[in-house]
Structures are given as C-alpha cells and as structure tokens.
Write a structure and sequence with these properties.
Oligomer: heterodimer
Number of helices of chain A: 9
Strand order of the largest sheet of chain A: 1-2-6-7-10-13-14-15
Mean pLDDT of chain A: 91
Strand content of chain B: 35-45%
Structural class of chain A: alpha+beta
Order of helices and strands of chain B: HEEEEEHEEE
Strand content of chain A: 15-25%
Largest sheet of chain A: 8 strands, antiparallel
Distance between the termini of chain B: 65 Å
Distance between the termini of chain A: 54 Å
Mean pLDDT of chain B: 80
Low-confidence stretches of chain B: 21-26
Chain lengths: ~350, ~120
C-alpha cells in the first residue's frame, strides 16, 4: 500500500513534468496557419505572399492580386509592347500618356534631383550595353567588356531631361528609361494596398527579394534574413520588422567576370561602369519603392555619403556590406537586429 | 518490491522521458520541405545523406543532402543562382530556384523571409 501511494505520487510528478515540457516547447515559437500564394510569370522573378490569417476564397484573392501584378508588369516593361501606354511606348516613340506611369517616373526623378544622380532611371542605354555583355558571358561563354564604341553611341542619360506634365511623359531622342530598379518595390507597395483593400492585415510579401511585412496576428514581428553577399549560402543579419520593407541591392547574383574581375549589374551613373564600393546595401523603410531607390543609389556612393542621406530621411535605415570587408549600419539598425 | 527499486525505476522512466522529448522536439529541424510551384512535393531527412531528383520547369533539378546541409547540385537556369549557393543550412536560409520554381525550406526555420 505504501509503495502503491509512492508510485501514484511519482506518476503525478511525471505527468506534471510532461505538461511543463509541452507548454515549454510551444511557448518558444508560435505556430500559424499560413496560406501562401505565388506567381512566377512576372518581373522575371517569383512573387510570394504569405497570409497569416484565414483566406476564405483563395482563388478569388489570387485572381485580384494577379490582375494588379499584370497591370504593373505591363506598364513598367521596356521589352514588350502591351499597347496600354506602357514604358515600352515611351521608349519607342518618345512620349506616353499614362497617369500612373507619369507619377512613378516623377517620383523616381525626385530622388535623382534631390539626393544623388546615383539613382538614375535614364541609364537605359548603358544598362542595355552591360546586359548584353552579361548575357554573352553567361549563355555563350563569351566574356568580354563592352567596347568603347558601344559607350560612344550612348545618348542622353540625364534623368532631368525627362519631362513629366500631368499624365504625359516625354523623353528626348536617344534616351531610354529603365524602371527595373524600382518596379518590384512599386509592385510590393501596390500589393500591400490590394491586400489591405481585400481586408487582410497579417501578411508578408516577397517580390523577388523585396520583402514587406505587416504584423503577425499576435502582434509579433516578421524575421527577415539578409543574404551574406560574400558567402551567399548564409545570412549575415536577421531583422525583426513590423510594417516595414527590407530591400537589398547586391553584386552577387547578376554579374560576369573578365580576367577575374567581377562586373555586376549596378551601374555607376558617372563612370557608366559597375559600382565596386559595396557587395550589398540593404534598406529598411516604410515603402518598398524607397528601399529600391535608396539601395540602388547608396550602392554607388561611399558609406559616408550614403549615411548622410539615410540619416536625413525619417523611418529609413541601412546596412552596408562593403568590399573592404566592413559592415556598416545606420543608427537605427540596432532596434531591428535580431540578437 | 523494495523502495530503492521503485526509485530506480522512477529515475529510469524520467531519463527516458527526457530523451524521448528531446528527440521529438528536434525532429522538425532535421527535416527539409521541398516545394514545386508552392506545393509540398517531398520531405527530406537531413540526418541521411542522399541525392534526390525532380523535374523542374527547365529540366532536371538535383538536390543533395550532406552532413545536414542541402545543395542544389544540378539545375538549368540563366544565372544558376541557387546552384551557386552551395551547401546551405535550410533552417537558416531557404534555397530558392526561381527559374525552376523549386524551393527547399527547413522544417524548423525561424526566418519568415529572405531579402536578397
């Protein structure tokens, strides 16, 4: 009888221990039901949306979101004529009447004029030259730098010579506008609006590396890892973000090499050659388009020049992984960094 | 049964429980999920080295598990971004092969998104 009481007592202790473990295990990481929707046909990348809440009609939501993605894809494409007053039309005939496109171009030019020429949407002809070299190297193993003649034929690359008047945009002869550096950021911001209009509050968008997170249902932040540009099988920092965008511009995915020198796709607006000061620049901001613009701009500037710009804009922070091996952070990064 | 026997049995049971619970707790981190077009198509045991093949949009995609790490060892794409990543701890950073629509993510990843 005495032993029986002891055994019962021990079983009770064991059950309590087990319960403790179970609750202990669950308190470490909250589990959520996540609905994911993805698109692969646009912007030459994957667009992935994770909704941390119930989605009643996934097909309807997918359709609404895709319709907006398609609109922006067609509007900002410089490769295909979608006959809807797109960027292609502007580059082909020198003029386009499209209010949304005009607003987007005007916004991009304001950064060029207010902060630095290192964010320049008029670099289209230069980008084409470097893209051709990249393609020749990657697809045909013909790895050569663009010739001097190719640069001699480049026309006007001054973004201030793009004129925006109401819904009409005009460019001078020989100019070509490229919105590749901001289209995914703009898209991310627009998809955020679409999802909120559809009644969703808790989601994370990843448009080809442009990440935007609202909040999780319990108010928790999203963890966003930033790829290490030197050893890209790992991340070098993880950020906790709430209603923020994280965007990185880096030299480690789109590049080619000639004589062991790496030429990336981020072109310095003054030298017309790829910038080599940093391996990557990451921007945390409220809007993804600002992250796109500033990460591209800061990639072409020294850390000191970039820091001055970042510290002058509210709600913006930056991380530089420079080619000198140093990692620099603006003053607010500490509040986002996951320790 | 003597009192000391009962205490011994109790200790053994508690230790076994500890062991079992630890095993269960870590099982998610020893697993990787392979998605094609956002649909889970395969689960990989990270404890076992192996080579797995699947058909991507651009042809064969080969996934290799070695020492708990995962690499895309064969794929066809313009920039070969995912195969250039080499062996990756997928619980820290997922492998994403955009042109082939293939993603490999850790079963216990504490990362919600990756900026690149």
């Amino acid at each position: 009888m005495k032993n029986f009481k002891m055994i019962v007592g021990m079983i009770v202790v064991l059950v309590l221990l087990l319960l403790g473990f179970m609750f202990g295990k669950n308190s470490g990481k909250q589990e959520y039901e996540i609905t994911r929707i993805s698109y692969f046909e646009y912007f030459d990348t994957a667009i992935d949306i994770s909704l941390y809440e119930e989605v009643e009609n996934k097909d309807d939501l997918e359709s609404v979101v895709e319709s907006r993605i398609k609109e922006i894809h067609e509007m900002t494409s410089s490769f295909n004529d979608y006959e809807n007053h797109s960027l292609y039309e502007l580059n082909e005939v020198g003029e386009v009447d499209n209010e949304e496109l005009a607003n987007l171009i005007e916004y991009a030019i304001s950064y060029y004029e207010d902060y630095s020429v290192q964010f320049n949407i008029a670099l289209g002809p230069v980008i084409d030259v470097w893209k051709e070299s990249l393609t020749n190297c990657r697809e045909f193993s013909k790895c050569e730098l663009p010739s001097e003649e190719e640069f001699d034929n480049i026309g006007n690359v001054n973004a201030s010579n793009i004129t925006v008047s109401g819904s009409v945009v005009k460019i001078e002869e020989g100019m070509k506008v490229d919105l590749g550096a901001i289209s995914k950021g703009y898209l991310t911001d627009e998809l955020t609006k679409v999802l909120k209009d559809e009644g969703y509050e808790y989601f994370l968008i990843n448009a080809g590396g442009n990440v935007y997170g609202t909040t999780k249902p319990d108010g928790e932040s999203y963890s966003v890892a930033v790829v290490n540009p030197v050893e890209n099988s790992e991340s070098f920092i993880t950020l906790n973000v709430l209603n923020k965008s994280v965007v990185t511009s880096g030299d480690y995915e789109r590049y080619f090499e000639v004589d062991n020198i790496r030429y990336n796709h981020l072109i310095n607006s003054e030298t017309l050659f790829p910038s080599t000061l940093h391996h990557s620049v990451t921007i945390i901001s409220d809007k993804s388009i600002d992250g796109d613009i500033l990460s591209t701009m800061l990639f072409g500037l020294t850390y000191e020049e970039g820091l001055e710009i970042v510290e002058s804009i509210d709600g913006v922070d930056a991380i530089w992984y420079s080619t000198n091996g140093e990692i620099y952070k603006s003053s607010g990064i500490d509040s986002y960094e996951k320790k | 049964m003597r009192k000391s026997d009962v205490i011994l049995i109790f200790i053994v049971v508690v230790l076994n429980t500890f062991y079992l619970f630890n095993t269960v707790s870590f099982s998610d981190s020893q697993k990787a999920n392979v998605y094609y077009d956002n649909v889970l198509i395969m689960e990989l045991d990270l404890n076992v080295d192996g080579v797995y093949e699947l058909e991507g949009v651009n042809g064969e995609v080969e996934i290799t598990v070695k020492d708990g790490m995962v690499a895309i060892t064969k794929e066809t794409s313009p920039l070969n971004v995912c195969s250039n990543q080499g062996y990756v701890d997928v619980n820290k950073i997922p492998l994403i092969c955009l042109p082939n629509r293939v993603a490999v993510e850790g079963g216990n990843s504490d990362v919600d998104g990756v900026a690149r």
